[in-house]
Amino acid sequence: MTRHVALSTARVAWRHSLRFRLALVYSLVALAITTLIGLVVVTLLLGSMDRQFDARLNERADVLADQFTNLSKGLGERPPAITGFTVLVDAQNRVALSSNGLNMEPGEPFPQLNEYRLPLQGTRVRAVTRKAGGFGTLWVGLPEDDLIAARESAMRALLLSALITPALMLLLGWWVGRRALAGLGQAADLADRIDPTRSLATLPLPVREDEVHRLLAAINRLLVRIEAGQAREKQLLGQIVHELGAPLTVLKASLNRAAERTGDLEVGRAALVADELTFTTQDLMQLARGQLEMKMVWHYIPARTLLGRLDRLVPGTSFEGDWSGGILCDPDRLTQALRNLLANARRAAGPEGTVSLTLEDTPEQVRFVVQDSGPGLPPELGDRIFEPFISGAGSSGLGLSVSRQIALMHGGNLTGSNQAGGAQFVLCLPGAALGDDHDEDQHHDDTELAEVSTPAAARP
Predict the structure, then answer these.
(1) Closest Cα partner for 365 from 319, 413, 307?
(2) Example GO molecular function term (predicted)?
(3) Could you give the dihedral angle defined by the CA atoms of residues 372, 374, 375 and 376, in that order, rounded to the nearest 10 degrees?
(4) Are 79 and 66 in contact, with CB atoms under 8 Å apart?
(5) What is the helix, strand, coil percentage profile of the chain, to 5?
(6) Would the N or C end of the chain have less CB density within 10 A of its end CB?
(7) Separation CA 201–CA 204 (nearest Å)
(8) How far apart, in Å, do the first and last CA atoms of the chain sit?
């Protein structure tokens, strides 16, 4: 299937490539020029042949007419012998004398006297008439089969050149264009591999300072401007998050203490809003830092420790599966990723809906399945739901993007789909057995780590 799609894409790219369009235009121009020149040459050639034929015919007719005219001056002399397609017609339009090849009898009517092009005995003949002194009218013809054959040969040659020349020019133009635009194709491949989230390294410039060199130089200047703009945006975003983080932490702690002391529901809801804002600032900080700048702190923790954190952060979640094992992860980052998924699920399901988190632990991988009873994911968004600031539920659109980024940094992945009437997200991590050799020095002191329950909001 993948190979079929790749071939289809290659065919489409072949039809829309610049070198194909240049070769096609080059071939069409060559066809037009070749056809025009060929028509002019063939027309001139055929015209010259036609004039030569008429000259021969008229010369023959003049010679015969002169013989009959000079002979008629002497009374009683017989007319000279005639050959080829020649007929002597009297005043009554009857054959007086004809060449042997025509098989005409004297006195036979000759209705073709005023015809100058006619088929005669299976041959196309062109004729002229001359006065033959006192003998009558002389009809002289020449077969033009050779002239017609030459005309047809010239037209076939013109048609053949009109068919072969464009094909040859197309192949030649494709080959020349491929060589001439090779640098442009390589530049396109290099530019296509640029990932703004990872690196904005400039493209290598060709030695020859041609249009490709100018294009790559312009792209490099654009990359430098983009990198400078991204640096300014990250710096500004980081400053904003830093300024918001400390007041929100104090505000959340104060509202939680006030809610515990007074039991006021409004204060409790305000504390939840402060908690939501704290996580939003975390997502913004993650976005500002980017994947390359985020450092992972690996620990092997009991799964129940993670369950306790999530239960406090997203109340009303149903936890299913086997939570008796351990998980190799960055606890704070994984808590942040799963909390974002559960918060989105709770927002989509509503107060009366259900949200569940199922843990499926195998030696090869650890799967966290978040299922809600909401309306599901918008089908028109597809995988774009994981892009920053893309949301189908009216949220900031950062949670899913950050969650997938955290999953990728753990060596796993995050996918989403619609299942059983709601949305389902599956976050996969490699099994702990796969990382024993790599992280052996960090898998210690599990008892102390099991007691750690610091929420993700406490870490920027």
Answers:
(1) 413
(2) kinase activity
(3) -20
(4) no
(5) 60, 15, 25
(6) N
(7) 9
(8) 44
Q: How many residues does the chain have?
A: 460
Rounded to whole angstroms, the Cα distance separating 45 from 123 reads 23
* pTM, two decimal places: 0.46
Give the pair of three-digit tokens for residue 130: 């001359």
356, two tokens: 């569940």
Place of tokens 């399945």: 369
pLDDT tens digit sequence for 356-384: 999 999 888 999 999 999 888 888 877 88
Which tens digit of pLDDT belongs to each residue from 19-38? 677 777 777 887 788 788 88
Which residue pairs from 154-162 have beta carbons closer than 8 angstroms and sit at least 24 positions apart in sequence? 154/42, 154/45, 154/46, 155/42, 157/42, 158/35, 158/38, 158/39, 158/42, 161/34, 161/38, 162/31, 162/34, 162/35, 162/38
**CA 346-350-351 angle, 5° bins:** 100
Element (H, E) at 367: strand 365-372
Name the token pair of 59.
């010369």
Residue 205: exposed, middle, or buried by beta-carbon count in 10 A (0-12, 13-18, 19+)?
Answer: middle
